[in-house]
Amino acid sequence: MRSVKDRIVIITGASSGIGEATARRLAREGAVVILAARRRERLERIAEELTASGGRALAIPTDITVEADRRHLVERTMETYGRIDALINNAGYGQRGPIEGVPIEAIRQNFETNLFALIALTQLVIPLLRAQGSGRIVNISSVAGRIARPFSAVYDATKHALEAISDGLRGELAPFGIQVIVIEPGFIRTEFLHVAKEVSRSALERSQPYAPFLADLDRQYERLRRWAGRPEDVATVILRALTEARPRPRYAVPGHARVLLALKRWVPDHLFDGCVRLCRLGTKFIALRDRRP
Ligand SMILES: NC(=O)c1ccc[n+]([C@@H]2O[C@H](COP(=O)([O-])OP(=O)(O)OC[C@H]3O[C@@H](n4cnc5c(N)ncnc54)[C@H](OP(=O)(O)O)[C@@H]3O)[C@@H](O)[C@H]2O)c1
Q: What is the pLDDT of residue 283?
């Protein structure tokens, strides 16, 4: 599609962060955005704001892990607009904690939201796109889809799996005129870290032997905030992925994500781990330098 004008686009996780920024950007470009997430008031407020400023938006409260909600999302969209041009699979969260301390149920839940529900929703949409002979599916992965880190490996595993599913889907759906694109954001300033901390509280409490490392990690995230990208930057890349005539299979955003992925690709693992340690020391040094009067 050359432009998103009048296109019907479902965006999951549209109540905050990257999903909200994407909804706002696409609505400005003339798309009809279908907003899906659990927090009804937020979705409705965003939809009202978009409509008030001349956009077209429909809020459909959805928990993507609930089958009836997924069906309702797709059926309501079809009843209202008669077609779906793009699905942006963005809803997700990050489980943190050492693998030793994360309850297996919490691991399952993270996979349920970030992977299984995403696949199930995509399965509902594919036949409709196939019948139309066109459409795009944009999966929001992460740099974590290609780089796994200590204390984040559960979340990273969900995104690694999403990368694999996306690669498979890309080949399967290309003959039907459907493009599958992966977006790999780096560190983006959203509610993501706050939510990760909340959902990971019990896993972190059960992980006493790791407490000093986890505290260090928290400080590191704080230091990294200054380099974090904006959700609007990701929204711009999603718009490109939707409108470029020949979209790339993957887009990394912002610059630090591209650097990290290039390092990961070309540098052997043991050297890559060394680079990560060096970066950590570098951010510590910069933080100390900035604190000096
Ligand atoms: N921020 C980053 O640094 C970063 C980096 C790389 C990738 N990502 C990925 O980007 C995506 C968006 O994250 P974000 O950074 O924008 O974080 P965010 O502000 O926390 O947004 C997450 C969104 O997902 C929704 N969501 C979570 N569970 C859901 C469920 N069961 N059903 C429906 N919606 C659900 C949330 O809405 P409700 O709570 O209202 O349901 C929210 O709208 C995620 O897939 C994340 O993994 C983020």
A: 77
* 278 in any annotated domain: no
Whose alpha carbon is nearest atom 7 of ligand 1?
A: 142
Ligand 1 touching residue 152 (CB < 6 A):
no
Give the chain's domain count: 1
Beta-sheet pairing, 86-89 with 56-61? unpaired
Tell me what pLDDT residue 293 has.
66
Q: How large is the average pLDDT for residues 207-227? A: 88
Is residue 189 a part of any domain in this protein? yes
Q: Round to whole Å and give the CA distance between 177 and 135.
A: 7
**Parent domain of 112:** 8-211+226-257
Q: Count the helix, strand and coil residues of the chain and give each as a percent rounded to the nearest 5.
A: 60, 15, 25
Output the domain CATH number for residue 52. 3.40.50.720
Q: Is 62 in the pocket of ligand 1 (CB under 6 A)?
A: yes
Q: Is residue 219 part of a domain?
A: no
Residue 145 Cβ inside 6 Å of ligand 1? The answer reads no
Residue 267 lies in a domain: no
- Which tens digit of pLDDT belongs to each residue from 110-145? 999 999 999 999 999 999 999 999 999 999 999 999
Residues 6 or more apart in contact with residue 74 via CB below 8 angstroms: 10, 84, 121, 124, 125, 128
pLDDT at position 234 is 98
The predicted model scores a pTM of 0.96
How far, in Å, is the centroid of ligand 1 from the Cα of 87? 15
155 as an active site residue: the answer is yes
